[in-house]
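Hey, I'm writing a tutorial for new members on how sequence and structure tokens pair up, and I'd like a real worked example in the thread rather than a made-up one. If someone can provide the structure for the chain below, I'll link this post from the tutorial.
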Amino acid sequence: MCNEAHHEDLVASVREGPPARDRTIRSSRRRLTRGAARAGVVVLVSSLLAACGSNLIYGSDGGGKTTLTWYANPDPPPPEGTSPADFGQPGIAQRCSTDEYDIEVETLPSSASEQRIQLARRLAAEDSSIDLMSLDPVFVAEFADAGFLERIPEDMQADLEEGVLQGAIDGATWEDELVVAPLWANTQLLWYRKSLADAAGLDMTEPVTWDQVIDAAVEQGGTVGVQANKYEGYVVWINALIAGAGGEIVTDTEAGSDAAIELGSEAGTEAARVVQKLADSPAAQADLSVSNEGTVLGPFAEDPGGFQVNWTFIFQNYAADEAVAEDLGWARYPQTVEGQESAPPIGGIDVGVGSATDHPDLALEAVSCITSEQNQVTFALETGQMPAGEAAYEDAELQDTYPPDLLELFQESIENAGPRPPSPYWGSIVNAILNVWHPAGSVNPNTTPGDSAEFVEAVLNGDALV
């Protein structure tokens, strides 16, 4: 008997394969040029879904009321005594359910890459059970280009864009159209221990450079926490360094695999110089080659502390540690080149409607509710993930929870962010970069940027595998 659990097992059984399958899975109605290996995966998944038939369709509860299924990334754990059903995205789903439909949340894997894989494979198979999805902005271009997203009507696009910070809009747009709705926006700041910065003589009210940060940490025996594991988070750092030097990893991304690779530029060299300097310095944390957003937290909290670049959750993360909380400072992301404004990383979550849904009108209505100002505020208070809408930052409760200057810095950082390139081939670009830039200790400004540019181009042209 075919059921949902069996369907998941069947889909999982076709996930493994040669690295070429990591390329964008395009729907047959939009692209007829996929390779034989990718075609095999899509055809097989489609056959499996067809075999399962209506058991995989969530449309109605049998009593005439529609159920919309929302595939969402995991939220942080709720506070003790709070039901998971009332918290985060499930809580939003409850508040946005109506007399006409209920919204049920299915939780995606914790890894953004695994989220992408699960959604892309099911959407390529035209799985109608995906009514709504929470989508990392970095995958929006890929999903839109593949035809996986229901088009948002123009009048609704205008409503969803109104009052939203520009950085969040940029990440939700493809080919000059809003294709998903921003729910929350995220950005990285430079977090620092005030005592160490003071001892080093750094004026943190003025812009600081990566060189200054690293030198100060070395002088005071502290550390600089970054994300340099072999995962997309490391490329977030590389991209921010390149953008901060006035460059881009790739340009003309709407050309798909024919995008212009700019890694070998002077900006790429500046980025590699910063990576090399940190990796070769005593300020590098011992686990640099496997560091991520979580591993950097411990060394930062130990005396004498230091610096870290990390997302907005950091403020609440140290709330229970009074000594660290009182010594916690924040500043705009460091400059790659002195005197040139930094381009902070930007992330967050957008909400889109699956193109194969049986209920597009209801799902679009639900998107408007899910991403409303009040839901953005509530979600920020619950999870520490900041709103995408500017007006939400004026909420009295949010203002009581966060220092006003920190909220202003969040908004400034989002507005002036350096987004990752909106390429439908971003997954392949990331893996190609990691193959050359990882570990950070191997980076050489004289060779790494040029070598990685050549390798990315070869991967996009189908001449190399990752």
